[in-house]
Amino acid sequence: MKAAWLGLLKHSLNRVTVPLARSGRGPFALVRHVGRRSGRPYETPLLLARLGDDFVAELTYGPDVDWYRNVVAAGHCQVITGGIVHEIDRIEILPADDGLRAFGNPAAVVLRLLRRRDFRLLHVATTQSGMP
Description:
GO terms for molecular function: oxidoreductase activity. This is Nitroreductase family deazaflavin-dependent oxidoreductase. It comes from Paractinoplanes toevensis. By secondary structure, this protein is an alpha+beta fold. About 35% of the residues lie in helices and about 35% in strands. The protein has helices at about 1-25, 65-75, 95-105, 105-115; strands spanning about 30-35, 40-45, 50, 55-60, 75-80, 85-95, 120-125. Strands 2-1-5-6-7-4-3 form a seven-stranded antiparallel beta sheet. Strand 1 (about 30-35) and strand 2 form a beta hairpin. The protein is globular, with a radius of gyration of 14 Å.
């Protein structure tokens, strides 16, 4: 059931959110990553929060989603937000309280009500280099 739901989202909602994220309008950022098995490039729209120079992702569907597994396997990705490309050189587990704080209210209130506890810190590289 979960796989079917994720597939539906990937093939319907992403058609709207990817162009929005690319344009720099709206709340979405793009995570650009490479498939761990296929080697194909992908762009996944996400709602991210800033924490200093870095980004925070809430894993709504858990850590078994493709984008996250691809980034962990590769050890890096890119985040595109507002037309700016940020090189991500590592991803770390972030304590839930820190993740909620990064999103701020009212998003944190909603995330608490939904009992979201899986947050990841996407660390922005200090030197920017291109990703294949």
